[in-house]
C-alpha cells in the first residue's frame, strides 16, 4: 500500500495514518484501522475528519454507540463542520431517532 510508504519516512504524518485507517476499515480490517485512527488522532486531535472516518468505521462494524461518540467528538472539535453533523444525523436516522436526526441535518 502506498499509504504505508507515506508513513514510513514520517511516522508523525497524521493525515497518512487517517487515510490508511480509512482504507483498512473499508477492507474490513478494523483492528488495524483502529491503531491508525488512534495514531492519527494522537498526532492531530483537532482533525474532525479523523473522527468522522472513525465513527463511520464503528458504524459499519455495528457499533452505533461508538460511532455516535466519534461523531459527537468531531462536532465538539469543529462545531461548524457540517460533515460531522450530517454523519450524526444519518446515524440517528438509521437508529430510528428521526426527530433527533432532523435536528442535526
Walk me through this protein's architecture.
The structure is a single chain. This protein is an all-alpha fold and 105 residues long. The chain has one domain: Serine Threonine Protein Phosphatase 5, Tetratricopeptide repeat. It is built from seven helices and no strands. The protein has helices at residues 2-7, 14-26, 30-43, 48-60, 64-77, 82-94, 98-104. The longest helix has 14 residues, at 30-43.
Q: What is the fold-level CATH name, i.e. the topology? A: Serine Threonine Protein Phosphatase 5, Tetratricopeptide repeat
Task: Just give the CATH class.
Answer: Mainly Alpha
What's the helical proportion of residues? Answer: over 70%
What is the arithmetic mean of pLDDT? 93
Features:
mainly alpha, 7 helices, Serine Threonine Protein Phosphatase 5, Tetratricopeptide repeat, 105 residues
Compact summary:
The chain is mainly alpha-helical and 105 residues long. The chain has helices at residues 2-7, 14-26, 30-43, 48-60, 64-77, 82-94, 98-104.
Itemize the secondary structure elements and their pairings:
Elements lengths: L1 H6 L6 H13 L3 H14 L4 H13 L3 H14 L4 H13 L3 H7 L1
Amino acid at each position: 500500500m502506498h499509504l504505508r510508504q507515506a508513513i514510513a519516512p514520517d511516522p508523525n504524518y497524521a493525515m497518512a495514518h487517517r487515510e490508511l485507517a480509512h482504507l483498512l476499515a473499508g477492507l474490513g480490517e478494523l483492528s488495524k484501522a483502529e491503531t491508525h485512527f488512534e495514531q492519527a488522532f494522537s498526532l492531530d486531535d483537532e482533525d474532525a475528519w479523523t473522527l468522522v472516518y472513525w465513527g463511520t468505521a464503528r458504524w459499519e462494524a455495528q457499533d452505533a454507540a461508538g460511532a455516535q461518540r466519534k461523531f459527537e467528538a468531531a462536532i465538539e472539535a469543529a462545531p461548524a463542520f457540517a460533515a460531522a453533523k450530517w454523519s450524526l444525523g444519518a446515524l440517528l436516522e438509521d437508529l430510528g431517532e428521526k426527530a433527533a436526526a432532523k435536528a442535526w441535518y
